[in-house]
């Protein structure tokens, strides 16, 4: 997802907290940078500060709406009157959270929006004896909790969400890591290898040569 906030310390604090929740997060400090990033990345959710200097958050939201950009937009702003909310939602925002906010509520709203940004998925992903609950960040197999790292959890969630379709290493890197990830790194291969060991037998993750991975 993309966090757009001109207060750099707040932006990095929010991004760090979301990454601890297993999300892949990029940061933009102004409206122009936000539109540059959305031009090349497919985000699930854009957390957008409304009161941006230069290109206003309203203009960013309007530009994304006119372009048919698929991400859900959560406006995060100190302007919290009913008229402000109506205006923001009228511009195409999908949700509106006034500052100050509880971080747990921000996470819950982002997860709710992310579920709606792609084809609808059940709240708990199940494949045989494997269960993954994105809300609680708990994955189990045969009733036993799996000790997954945030990245392992993210990769497993992406593979289960694909419902048997092949997910390329590039897609896993783009959606499971942030913009600073090295595209030539072996981190996806290493993470999948660790995930396989933790999932145990019988094996669940198949490598499709020259294509990627699938459950």
Structural class: alpha/beta
Order of strands in the sheet with the most strands? 2-1-3-4-5
Whole-number tally of structural domains: 2
Task: Please give the largest β-sheet.
Answer: 5 strands, parallel
| CATH architecture descriptor name of the largest domain | 3-Layer(aba) Sandwich
- CATH superfamily placement of the largest domain: Response regulator
CATH topology of the largest domain: Rossmann fold
Whole-angstrom Rg: 18 Å
Task: Please report the first level of CATH classification, the CATH class of the largest domain.
Answer: Alpha Beta
**Helix and strand string, N-terminal first?**
EHEHEHEHEHEEEEHHHEE
InterPro entries: CheY-like_superfamily, OmpR/PhoB-type_DNA-bd, Sig_transdc_resp-reg_receiver, WalR-like, WH-like_DNA-bd_sf
Pfam families: Response_reg (PF00072), Trans_reg_C (PF00486)
Keywords: DNA-binding, Phosphoprotein
Protein name: DNA-binding response regulator
What are its keywords?
alpha/beta; Rossmann fold; Arc Repressor Mutant, subunit A; 2 domains; 42% helix
Description:
The chain is of the alpha/beta class and 215 residues long. It folds into 2 domains: 2-117, Rossmann fold; 125-214, Winged helix-like DNA-binding domain superfamily/Winged helix DNA-binding domain (Arc Repressor Mutant, subunit A, Orthogonal Bundle), CATH 1.10.10. It contains 8 helices and 11 strands. Strands 2-1-3-4-5 form a 5-stranded parallel sheet, with helices on both faces. Strands 6-7-8-9 form a 4-stranded antiparallel sheet, covered by helices on one side. Helix 2 (31-40) packs parallel to helix 3 and helix 6 crosses helix 8 (187-199). The longest helix has 15 residues, at 103-117. The radius of gyration is 18 Å and the shape is elongated. 31% of the residues are buried. The model has no long low-confidence stretch (mean pLDDT 87). This is DNA-binding response regulator. Residues 122-215 form the OmpR/PhoB-type domain. The modification 4-aspartylphosphate is found at residue 49. Residues 122-215 bind DNA. InterPro entries: CheY-like_superfamily, OmpR/PhoB-type_DNA-bd, Sig_transdc_resp-reg_receiver, WalR-like, WH-like_DNA-bd_sf.
């Amino acid at each position: 997802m993309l966090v757009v906030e001109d207060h750099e310390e707040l932006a990095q604090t929010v991004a760090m907290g979301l990454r601890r929740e297993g999300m892949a997060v990029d940061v933009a400090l102004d409206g122009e940078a936000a539109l540059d990033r959305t031009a090349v990345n497919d985000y699930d959710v854009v957390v957008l500060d409304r009161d941006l200097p230069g290109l206003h958050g309203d203009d960013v939201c309007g530009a994304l709406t006119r372009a048919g950009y698929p991400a859900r937009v959560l406006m995060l702003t100190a302007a919290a009157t009913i008229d402000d909310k109506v205006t923001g939602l009228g511009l195409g925002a999908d949700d509106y959270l006034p500052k100050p906010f509880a971080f747990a509520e921000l996470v819950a709203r982002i997860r709710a929006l992310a579920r709606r940004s792609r084809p609808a998925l059940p709240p708990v992903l199940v494949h045989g004896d494997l269960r993954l609950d994105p809300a609680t960040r708990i994955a189990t197999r045969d009733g036993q909790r799996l000790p997954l790292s945030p990245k392992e959890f993210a990769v497993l969630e992406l593979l289960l969400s694909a419902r048997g379709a092949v997910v390329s290493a590039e897609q896993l890197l783009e959606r499971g890591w942030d913009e600073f990830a090295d595209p030539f790194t072996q981190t996806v291969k290493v993470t999948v290898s660790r995930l396989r060991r933790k999932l145990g037998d019988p094996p669940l993750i198949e490598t499709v040569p020259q294509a990627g991975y699938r459950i």
